[in-house]
Design goal:
This protein is of the alpha+beta class and about 400 residues long. About 35% of the residues lie in helices and about 20% in strands.
Amino acid sequence: MIHTFELSKTITAKNFYELNNSLSGIQRINKYNSSFHVTYMYKEKGLSRITLLKTKRERIAPDYPNSIYYYNISLIINPLQMFGGDKNFSSCTYDFSSCLAYKILSQIYDILPSLEIFPNLRNVNDIDSQKKWYNANTFTVKRIDFAFDIKNNCDVYLDIIKRGYYIPKLESATYSNDNTQNNKDDKFEYDSDEIIPPTPKYLYYKCKSYNLNIYNKAYAMRNKKTLPKDYEKYDFLRFECQVKRRKLYYIKEKLGLNGLDILDLATPEVEHYFLSSSLNARLGTGIHLTLESARNIIDECPNFKPSKRKRLKDFIYFINIHGGIEKSLDLVKQGKTTTYTESTFNTYLKDIKSLGISPITIPKSRIILDSNNNPVMDKKIGTYLVNLSTIYEAYYTAIQQELSANYNNLI
């Protein structure tokens, strides 16, 4: 699903000054050799932000021999709000047909008419003319936010994501409530099989090529000035991968896409690549059990000797008392524990993964509910929680089957 995306294109100096004088609510921000001119006055029309950029060129480009400045416009689009939908939900990627992309561009040029090329072709009832208009007026996707919403066990999944695997180059940026910002060497009280660390409501991780933004939507809405009366219906978890231009260029080459237009990128295949890889990297694929059940699974494994089983059970305990995999690995890397080397730590993670379970356990007191609000239990393993990666893969498979069925109906 797509929540928002950002489009950009190079414009002329004439376009820049025309828009700077005509757009409502423009505010100027100076930074280094650049000036940003920003307005948020067109949110109700689906343009969450319009930014005009004027920046000094490092060198004179051959195609602009007389200009020492570079001019650009970027637009953050909320497609659902643009067409009168609920802006707080995400829209399905497979709705991004050529028809919808055409409508989005038309809406943009209704607001920014001075940028439109071949305006006389926009409403011509001819496929070739429409393609010519679209190709002349299209933008490059600068950023696209792929989202996956989960309506059950939000707090439990947030806690698990917070305690997940270490992802290289991805740094924790901010949390919305102070009591989740524990020091990396914090050690929680862990009595037998019971640990309930503070539950976060908002997790944010960032790097140069993409961000992970994970939060309870209803909680996030409570901090807004205008709170809908029915905001409780937004009590769901949003896992959002905000993919930046650098990563978009990478996926273009990897998947052999034609370009960086919204039609090239707003597809189930591209969405699957980013959400699946992000979820697997942070959570792995194993089922989440209580500590006691995880230990029982290890004890029943014939592939490990008794001494190895004991070490793996101690390893899971070590991870959970220190706030999760990433924090535990930090202790190892910083030399704050001599229990494990980094190599041994990673080997044990692979051993646990081979059993089909996750090293991130759930407390006995956690109540896990299915979609009908019934407790999730298994006679053999007790309370369990399906991995978020597994849930997403089932969702993606359903999308593929629906697309295939729709295609077959057209034949």
